[in-house]
Design goal:
two-stranded antiparallel ribbon, 69% helix, Arp2/3 complex 21 kDa subunit ARPC3, disordered C terminus
């Protein structure tokens, strides 16, 4: 189950960063399309933590960050290779997928910062409640990591490029959409079993 969880986490992150090159409007707000997929990674990270522990979560975060860098580098390399003119110039590929390094960097930086914060908060909740209140692990960790992720992403991706009011509008739109995803995805934490060695027997009052 750990392998499946990590695969889903990595896939969701890579898909989200490819989607992030397109900015869309949803109910009047401008957001990068990756926000439709990316919020799922927070709950998937919690699932990895539950099954494999803190070390597995950290390795998954760092490994996924490295894979996103590799993805961006390979897209640039593919865009710069000579095109097969029998097919056409195919210049759209480079314009769409290889020209958004700032957004890609913003996504990776925000993910690393927010997901590591998520890991530490999850660990603190487990230490407080033990095997009980697993839903609290998801809500507590996401309640902090999601706003941090949104602020860091917008500052790195759009800082100096948009007005402060526009930046805050994007931040709030991201927080609302990511929070909504948490409300839908939190039951995933109950789909996996926690290995006995990772369970805490701390018995504290609610």
């Amino acid at each position: 189950m750990l392998l499946l969880s990590v695969m889903a986490y990595v896939a969701a992150s890579l898909i989200a960063n490819v989607m992030s090159v397109r900015i869309v409007r949803i109910v009047g707000f401008s957001i990068d399309a990756g926000t439709l997929m990316y919020p799922l990674t927070f709950t998937l990270r919690d699932v990895i933590h539950k099954v494999g522990g803190r070390h597995a979560a950290r390795v998954a975060i760092l490994g996924t960050g490295a894979l996103n860098v590799l993805l961006a580098a390979m897209l640039v390399a593919a865009a710069r290779l000579p095109a097969d003119l029998d097919v056409g110039q195919q210049s759209e590929f480079g314009r769409v997928l290889a020209s958004t390094w700032r957004i890609v960097v913003a996504s990776i930086v925000a993910q690393l910062v927010a997901e590591f914060i998520d890991t530490e908060i999850y660990t603190a909740v487990v230490a407080r409640f033990g095997h009980r209140r697993q839903w609290a692990r998801v809500f507590a960790s996401n309640a902090i990591s999601i706003p941090v992720d949104s602020v860091v992403f917008v500052l790195v991706a759009f800082g100096g490029e948009v007005t402060s009011s526009t930046a805050w509008a994007i931040i709030w739109a991201n927080i609302v959409l990511k929070g909504a995803t948490t409300l839908v995805s939190w039951p995933l934490i109950y789909t996996v079993r926690e290995p006995p060695a990772l369970e805490t027997n701390t018995e504290t009052s609610p």
